[in-house]
């Protein structure tokens, strides 16, 4: 059995479906405007039908829309645009009670060519509200990004961990090796840190590590990388910094650590650090060799009496 829909039945469905439906000519004159479009645009069909779409909505991407409509008519084939390509066509407000940082309704759009009753070439544009889908997708992507960032961080101090630091140092090493430039690496080790743990407990040691990390973070540049290398040892990558500049920076770090005791319960814990520096020079084979040089310089600083900076 075949069921035929009359014009009234078809119009009833078009007006009540929860999808935006508009029909335009090749010059973007509006032929049909359903209730979804009325409700979200606040423009009645009786006002816009027979008028040019861009006269009512000048904020639309007119050049893009004109090209899209004409290409659909020329090829006589439908087209689709996703919210991921273009978040929205019409700047409609969304209907979510919780915005999720979104200001407009996300939309998927289809463009369907067809012939009007008078033989005229028309295009039906449908708008699907995909705001919930888009926000969920964004939240998943953000969650993945947050997890990835956490995997790069030391759980106690919040600075980068050894794995991430070595990966970034490898990149910096390859950059200066290929294009030239400056690169210095700083190793820092807290002096007699074991005494703090043995005397006051590991919570006191954790407090010292957190406080020292904050002091270091306060003096580094945005382009530098601070990492907890292991235990009480830290590493700092200093891009575009020669050994002279790194020495000035290292002494600043040493002084800011030594300047103020770390307060733990009723105790004022004096903290000092030994620091070792190395600089990229032509002929150094790998970033591992650069780290090894910093480590040897650190050993020299400790051997010379601690609370000082030594350069390789």
Summed up, what is this model?
The protein is an alpha+beta fold and 312 residues long.
SSE layout:
Blueprint: H1 7-16, E1 20-25, E2 30-33, H2 35-41, H3 45-48, H4 53-56, H5 62-75, E3 79-81, E4 107-115, E5 121-129, H6 131-151, E6 160-161, H7 162-179, E7 183-190, H8 193-200, H9 202-219, E8 225-230, E9 233-239, H10 243-259, E10 262-264, E11 267-269, E12 273-279, H11 287-303, E13 309-311
Parallel strand pairs: 6-8, 12-13
Antiparallel strand pairs: 1-2, 1-5, 3-4, 4-5, 7-9, 7-12, 8-9, 10-11
Structure description:
This protein starts with 6 loop residues before the first helix and ends with a strand. By secondary structure, it is α+β, with helices and mostly antiparallel strands. The model is unreliable at 1-6 (pLDDT under 50). The strands form three sheets. It has a six-stranded mixed sheet with strand order 6-8-9-7-12-13, sandwiched between helices. Helix 8 (193-200) crosses helix 9 and helix 9 packs across helix 10. The protein is elongated, with a radius of gyration of 32 Å. It contains eleven helices and 13 strands. The longest helix is centred in the middle third of the chain and has 21 residues, at 131-151. It has two domains: 7-137, Beta-Lactamase (2-Layer Sandwich); 152-311, Alpha-Beta Plaits, CATH 3.30.70.
Features of this protein?
alpha+beta, Beta-Lactamase, Alpha-Beta Plaits, 2 domains, six-stranded mixed β-sheet, five-stranded antiparallel β-sheet
């Amino acid at each position: 059995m075949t069921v035929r829909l009359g014009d009234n039945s078809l119009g009833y469905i078009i007006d009540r479906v929860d999808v935006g439906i508009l029909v335009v000519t090749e010059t973007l004159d509006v032929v049909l405007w359903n209730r979804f479009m009325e409700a979200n645009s606040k423009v009645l069909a009786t006002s816009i039908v027979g008028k040019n779409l861009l006269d009512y909505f000048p904020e639309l991407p007119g050049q893009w829309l004109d090209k899209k409509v004409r290409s659909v008519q020329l090829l006589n084939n439908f087209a689709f645009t996703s919210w991921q390509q273009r978040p929205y066509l019409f700047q409609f407000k969304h209907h979510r009670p919780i915005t999720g940082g979104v200001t407009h309704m996300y939309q998927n759009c289809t463009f369907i060519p067809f012939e009007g009753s008078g033989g005229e070439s028309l295009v039906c544009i449908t708008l699907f509200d995909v705001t919930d889908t888009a926000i969920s997708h964004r939240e998943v992507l953000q969650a993945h990004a947050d997890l990835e960032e956490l995997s790069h961080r030391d759980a106690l101090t919040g600075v980068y961990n050894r794995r991430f630091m070595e990966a970034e140092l490898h990149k910096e090493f390859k950059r200066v090796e290929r294009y030239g430039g400056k690169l210095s690496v700083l190793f820092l080790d807290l002096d007699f840190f074991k005494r703090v743990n043995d005397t006051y407990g590991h919570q006191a040691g954790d407090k010292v590590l957190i406080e020292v990390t904050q002091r270091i973070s306060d003096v580094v540049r945005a382009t530098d990388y601070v990492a907890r290398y292991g235990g009480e040892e830290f590493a700092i990558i200093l891009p575009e910094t020669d050994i002279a500049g790194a020495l000035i920076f290292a002494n600043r770090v040493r002084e800011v650590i030594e300047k103020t005791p770390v307060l733990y319960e009723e105790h004022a814990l004096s903290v000092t650090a030994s620091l070792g520096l190395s600089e990229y020079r032509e002929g150094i084979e790998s970033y591992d060799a650069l780290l090894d040089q910093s480590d040897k310089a650190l050993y020299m600083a400790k051997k010379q009496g601690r609370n000082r900076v030594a350069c390789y």
